[in-house]
Amino acid sequence: KQWYQRRVRAGNLKREGKHSKAAYLLDRFCDDPDTAVEVLCEGCLFSEALQLSHVRGRVDLLPAVTTALLAQSETTFMVLQEKKDLIERLSTRIVLVRERRAAVEAGEEAMDHSDLYSDATSVTTASNVSRRSSRSAKGRRKAEKKRYSLREGSKFEYFAIQEEVKSTLAFLRDQDTQIRDMLSMLLIQGDRDRAGNLLTAQRDLVALLESTRKVFWPPVQREEDEEGADQIEEPVSLPPPESLRPNAIVMNQFL
Q: What's the pLDDT tens digit per position in 94-153?
């Protein structure tokens, strides 16, 4: 009975993202190093998986660790590349959105209210659905996502672009430890090309985010609004910290 309860507890820990604790429980109290290593790989804790394999004398588990490492490093590399491409597109798009907003506020251009009406209608509909479902948190999140759309011409596109950039910054911070671990493991295995590509992708994205910071959050210029100007009311996206300095591995330390 205790063995079953411990496995259930390990499963709950894994679902909570506590892969290291789940693996410890499986290895020490369920005598199941195979599943423990599998859980560690699922959590991208490849160094711990390697260590456990050696401590247990289970060299037969090493190929599984290597396979998971290579697959995850390739996935992470592609995600970093995709996010870099997205930030490049958004840095160009937000300039156009800002210019259009300025023209609207100066009365030089009329707002396309048909597009805004479409957005407002969808938000209202989503809000009604949310109320009918007891204002569930899921319904509210879905409505907010619908409202703050990156779709070109949407009412809150400017805000949505800034929030997407902040989301990318958060992704980099969250993934930094995992990327460090993958780089260490790849270098230990002698896979310098793959490690170099992954590190370059991470650094390129960081450099792009830092160089375009003022494009997404330009210095605020407070001016009196012209009387009668068509104002655009929207939420405010506060800028992120001044810089992003991930703990990226310095390749020369390992080569």
A: 999 998 888 877 766 555 544 443 333 333 333 343 444 445 655 555 555 556 677 888
Residue in 59, 84, 46, 88 with CA at minimum distance from that of residue 191: 46
pTM assigned to the model: 0.77
Residue 144 in contact with residue 127, Cβ under 8 Å? Answer: no
Q: What is the DSSP string of 159-227?
A: HHHHHHHHHHHHHHHHHHHHHHHHHHHHHHTT-HHHHHHHHHHHHHHHHHHHHTHHHHSPPP---PPPT
Q: How many CA atoms lie within 13 A of 181 on its CB side?
A: 22
pLDDT tens string 46-78? 999 999 999 999 999 999 999 999 999 999 999
CA distances from 124 to 62, 127, 141, 154 (A): 54, 5, 14, 15
* Rounded (5°) CA angle 97-158-211: 85
CA distance 7 to 10: 5
Burial 142-178 (b: 16+ CB within 10 A, else e): ebeebbbbeeeebbbbbbbbbebbbebbeebeebbeb
